[in-house]
Amino acid sequence: MEGLRDVYITGTGAFLPGEPVGVDAMEDHIGRISGRASAIGRRALRWNGVETRHYAMTPDGVAHHSNASMAAQAARAALEDAGLGLGDLQHLATATTQGDYLVPGHGPAVHAELGTGPIEVASYQSVCASALMAVKGAWLQVRAGEADVAVATGSEFSSRWFRPGFYEGTDLIDAKGRLRMEADFLRFTLSDGAGAVVLEPRPRPEGLSLKVEWIDLTSLAGAFDPCMWAGSTFADRADMTSAWSHAGPNAAHGAGAVALLQDFDLLKIVIRAWIGEWMKKVDAGRIDPDAVDHLLCHYSAQSLREEIVSILKSTRAMIPEEKWFSNLATVGNIGSASIWVMLDEFMKSGRAKRGERVLLIVPESGRAMIGFMMLEVV
User: Fold this and answer.
1) Distance CA 337, CA 79 (A)
2) 0.85 cut: is pTM over it?
3) Mean pLDDT (whole number) for 59-64
4) What's the longest Cα–Cα distance across the chain?
5) Helix or strand run (H / E) with residue 132
6) Do 8-200 and 210-377 share a fold?
7) In whole angstroms, what is the distance from residue 371 CA to residue 378 CA?
8) Which residues, in sequence order, are bridge partners of residue 198?
9) CA–CA distance, 252 with 268 (Å, rounded to integer)
10) Helices (H) and strands (E) in the chain, counts
């Protein structure tokens, strides 16, 4: 039996729908609840630090892409970047928060959009960290010799859930026509788009590749209630028997149990749990901050980055901010797509040099998860 193989990211790709939408136009693009300006929208945008983002839906509510089609576009771009074609693809691992269908999974939908012949597919559904779930699955496929060319995607179409009609007539709207903050804040936080990476057992013949050293994922769901969720009311989210499917779709929607929600008080606690896992990696020698040349850390808002940095500065786990790379301001938080869109821009920026080490960190507030991926530029 052959041993495990080294695996390399040989191509990256991104797809951002439509033209960039600036801060002043965001609320008009996704729609005003009850026809009025949000009470917290401006505050949310200052907190986020996002200047422009992309939407796969027009201001009048017409979708010009699907989640699956955006993932397929990113996969094509990554394969082209690797000098490969659709016919070379053997394993497709897809990640998303909410696919286009309830059933079947996101993987077959993306495969159908790609239009290739028979291949192996795998669907990973969570929130931001699902990107690293998918890439770990793809990495192991190539590492074990099950596939020679694998693609991992992350994609989101969040804006379709943010239209006023999705909330109006539900318990999330108060008597004055205002949307509950736990839902409204997310309308100004999330963007649409997709990213992808290609994995092969050898580096590309020309240009730079990224050798995958290791991928670690840690779920802390045993310690926390859901922090970001869709499918239950705010009060009952920890009771799985109260999920929307038990009440039925109409009753659940009326109760506000289908919309995407965030517990911001719990988020402040979860941030410290993420940092705790980061520090454990440093204490165990898994991460040597001094040996990291570039850090690509996904975070949903500039204020979260500032809080993470303020905590880390007093520890030996801190990686100097001049080594951090982010494109949050220009593309926004794209959930599971964020880390691949960021990596694609980083690789095309010319910053990466052979021999350098790149650390990817993806925390997820869904039910407290964090993922790490160490890469070497070759």
Assistant:
1) 16
2) yes
3) 95
4) 68
5) helix 130-143
6) yes
7) 23
8) 11, 151
9) 28
10) 12, 13
Per-domain residue ranges of the chain = 8-200, 210-377
C-alpha–C-alpha distance, residues 58 and 313, integer Å: 42
Task: Report helix, strand or coil for 221.
Answer: coil
Q: Which residue type is seen at 218? A: T
Q: What is the CA radius of gyration of the chain?
A: 20
C-alpha 87: how far from chain center: 27
Strands 91-96 and 120-125: parallel
Alpha-carbon distance of 282 to 318, in angstroms, equals 10
> Where does the pLDDT of residue 172 fall: very low under 50, low under 70, confident under 90, or very high at 90 and above?
very high
Which candidate, 338, 353, 344, places its Cα nearest to that of 97?
Answer: 338
Question: Which CATH entry fits the domain spanning 210-377: 3.40.47.10, 3.40.50.1370, 2.60.40.10, 3.30.1850.10?
Answer: 3.40.47.10
As a whole number of Å, the end-to-end CA separation of the chain is 28
Q: Which CATH superfamily is domain 8-200 in?
A: Thiolase/Chalcone synthase (3.40.47.10)
DSSP string spanning 325-344? ---HHHH-B-GGGHHHHHHH
Q: What pLDDT, in 10s, does the model give residues 262-317? A: 999 999 999 999 999 999 999 999 999 999 999 999 998 898 899 899 999 889 99
Contact 155, 74 (CB under 8 A): yes
